[in-house]
Amino acid sequence: MDGFGEATAVTRVDDGRYEADLDAGYGISGALNGGYLMAVLARAAVDASPHEHPVSTAANFHRVAKAGPARLVVDTRKQGRTAASSLVTLVQDDRPVVDALIITGTLDPATEPDYAAGQPAGMPDLEECTDVRPPTGDSGFADQVDMRFDRTTMGWLDGQPSGRPEIRGWFRHRCGHTADAYSLALAVDALPPVALNLGAQGWAPTVELTWHMRAVPAPGWLAVHGTGRLLAGGWFDEEVEVWDTAGRLVAQSRQLARAPRAHS
Q1: Which of these, 250, 256, 248, 255, lies nearest to 212 by C-alpha position?
Q2: Buried b vs exposed e over 232-245: b needs ≥16 C-beta within 10 Å?
C-alpha cells in the first residue's frame, strides 16, 4: 500500500474488533485530523460489511485522538441487500474518542445522475491557485495532502479576512494515492476552518460531522468548496462539497465546530 493506504489501514483481530496505528503525519497542531479519523473508521465499517463504500457517516468527536495504537469496535446494526449500518467506535486509553454511525452501500462508478446541480461558481483553474504551507518545518498534515487554494479566500493569512465564511481549493494526496472513498472522508475535512475568514484564529475542534459519498471519484485532483451559514455563541457550521475531474459531485458534508478565539 502507499502512504495514505498504510496510514489508514485496520487489522481485524476478532469479530467486529479491529486495531489501527494512527499516523502522526495527519496531525494539525497536535490533534489528528477528523477526516483522517473518519477514513480509518470507514475502513473498519466496510471490512465488516457486505458493501464496498461508506455512503453516509455521522461522526461525533469526543476528545483529541493521539498518534499510535487504537482499537475500533464495529457494532453491526443492519445488513441488507442494498445497505448495511454499523456503529463504529475508535477507542484509545479505554475511552471512546470518536463514535460514527456509518451506512455502507455499493456505488456503481458508471452510474449517470438523473439530476445534478451545477458545480459552485468561483473555483479558479489549478494554475491560478496557491500552495500554502506552514512557515515551520513541522508541517504534519500539509506534508500528506497537496492543496492549492483560491487566493481570494485566503486573506486571513495576511490579517485581511474576507468577511465571508468560505474557502476553496484543489486536493490530492502527496503520496500519489488514487482518489477513493477514504480520500473523500479526508477531503471533506481538509480545508482550513471557514470561520478564519470571519476574523477567528486558531484551532477549531469539530464536534459533529456528517458526510455523504455521492459517487466514486475519477482519478485526479478534487475540487473542494467550503462555506458556512452562521457563527454565533462560539459555534459555527461548515458545509463542504467535493467535485471530481469529471465534474461530478462526489461528496458533501456539514459539520458543527467550536469557533477559534477571535482576534482581540
Answers
A1: 250
A2: eeeebbbbbbbbbe
Q: State which fold the 3-107+123-258 domain adopts.
A: Porin (2.40.160)
Residues 6+ positions from 134 with CB-CB distance below 8 Å: 142
- Is this prediction's pTM over 0.70? yes
pLDDT digits (tens, 9 = 90+) for 25-82: 999 878 999 999 999 999 999 999 999 999 999 999 999 999 999 999 999 999 999 9
Rg of the chain, C-alpha, whole Å: 18
Within 10 A of 30 (CB to CB), how many other CB atoms are there?
Answer: 11
Closest CA to 52 of 88, 102, 12, 106: 106
Q: Which residues pair with 227 in a beta bridge?
A: 166, 239
* Domain residue ranges of the chain, discontinuous segments joined by +: 3-107+123-258
DSSP per-residue string spanning the chain: --HHHHHT--EEEETTEEEEEE-GGGEETTEE-HHHHHHHHHHHHHHTSSSSEEEEEEEEE-S---SEEEEEEEEEEEE-SS-EEEEEEEEETTEEEEEEEEEEE---TTPPPS--PPPPTTPPPGGGSB----SSS--THHHHEEEEE-GGG-GGGGT---SS-EEEEEEEETT-PPP-HHHHHHHTT-SPPGGGGGTB-S---EEEEEEEE-SPPPSS-EEEEEE-S-EETTEEEEEEEEE-TTS-EEEEEEEEEEPPPBP-
Q: Is the Cβ–Cβ distance between 168 and 153 less than 8 Å?
A: yes
Please give the angle made by the CA atoms of 68, 210 and 47, to the nearest 5 degrees: 55
